[in-house]
Amino acid sequence: MGSVKTKKRLPDSYQVLVYHSHDITREPVRFRLSKNWLITGIVVVLLLFAGAGASLILFTPLVGLAPGAVDSGTYQRDVIDNARRMDSLSKAIAVRSDYFARFQNLMKTDSLDTTTRAVPKQDGLVAEGAPVVEQADEALSPIGFGLEEASSYAEEDLSALTDSYASQAIPLSLGGLILSAPVKGIITRGVQPGVSHFGLDIAVKSGTPVSAMASGKVVFVDWTLKTGYTVVVQHVSGFVSVYKHLSSVMVQHGSAITTGEFIALSGNTGEYTTGPHLHVELWHNGNYLNPLDYLSRF
Question: pTM score > 0.70 for this model?
Answer without folding.
Answer: no
